[in-house]
Amino acid sequence: MSGKATGKTLLEAIDAIEPPKRPTDKPLRLPLQDMYKIGGIGSTLVGRIETGVLKPGMVVTFAPANVTTEVKSDKMHHEQLSEGVPGDNVGLKVKNVSVKQISHGKVAGDSKNDPPAGGAKFTAQVIVLNHPGQVGAGFAPVLDCHTAHIACKFSEILEKIDRSTGKSVENNHKFIKCVEAAIVKKIQSKPMCDEAFTDYPRC
């Protein structure tokens, strides 16, 4: 059986894919994955840049700890970088910072350009995927945000929404069940850096 095929080959189609634009124009956001104390070198922080640009010599602030320090060097895979951009997994050498001040879950940002801030409560869109009963005010699931892992209590269900369209279905609803969605006020068990995805998209 013979036939004629038209269009691009698989390799041609892959080569034609345009890489996504990295959000380098946004303020710096770098969630910390870990921190190491290395003898003779000092404190080294490890994380992945989500927005903005990181350069050696930059003064950064860590939220929600509100600790400020200077980045002495910026490396990726043991190679010195002149700058780090969104998507880069980097190691930062910083000074005058202890493990007790900065830990897993904190977020770094440029202290001179919209530094990150910690919050104690926020409003979120929630979908119950798998729960045996109903959930309402007082329910306290664990939230993973960036690299933070923190329990957050439902303080109030503001409205029940259609999970496919996001449109309001019912106001002042007391409970939601499995496969239902709602807009909920949450209170964190401890401060966390939580910001709108529309303002700080992940790379």
Report on the architecture of this protein.
This protein has 203 residues and is mostly beta strands. The chain folds into two domains: 29-110, Translation factors (Elongation Factor Tu (Ef-tu), domain 3), CATH 2.40.30.10; 119-192, Translation factors (Elongation Factor Tu (Ef-tu), domain 3). Helix content is 3%, strand content 44%. It is built from one helix and 14 strands; from the N terminus they run H-E-E-E-E-E-E-E-E-E-E-E-E-E-E. It has one helix at 10-15, and strands spanning 30-38, 42-48, 59-63, 67-76, 79-80, 89-94, 107-110, 119-127, 135-136, 142-145, 148-161, 168-171, 175-176, 181-192. The longest helix is centred in the N-terminal third of the chain and has 6 residues, at 10-15. The N and C termini lie far apart (46 Å).
Short description:
This protein is an all-beta fold and 203 residues long.
Oligomer: single chain
Strand order of the largest sheet: 1-2-6-4-3-7
By CATH reckoning, the class of the largest domain would read Mainly Beta
Q: Describe the largest sheet.
A: 6 strands, antiparallel, barrel
How much strand content do the residues show?
Answer: 35-45%
Number of helices, where a helix is a run of at least 4 consecutive DSSP H or I residues: 1
User: Helicity range of the residues?
Assistant: under 10%
Name of the CATH superfamily of the largest domain: Translation factors
Q: Strand tally, please?
A: 14
H and E order: HEEEEEEEEEEEEEE
How many distinct folded domains?
2
CA gyration radius, whole angstroms = 22 Å
User: What structural category arises from helix and sheet content?
Assistant: mainly beta
Low-confidence stretches: none
Average of per-residue pLDDT values: 86
CATH architecture of the largest domain: Beta Barrel
CATH topology of the largest domain: Elongation Factor Tu (Ef-tu), domain 3
Gross morphology is flat
Span of the ends, CA to CA = 46 Å
GO molecular function, one term: translation elongation factor activity
Family: Belongs to the TRAFAC class translation factor GTPase superfamily. Classic translation factor GTPase family. EF-Tu/EF-1A subfamily.
Domain GTP-eEF1A C-terminal: 121-202
Protein name: Elongation factor 1a
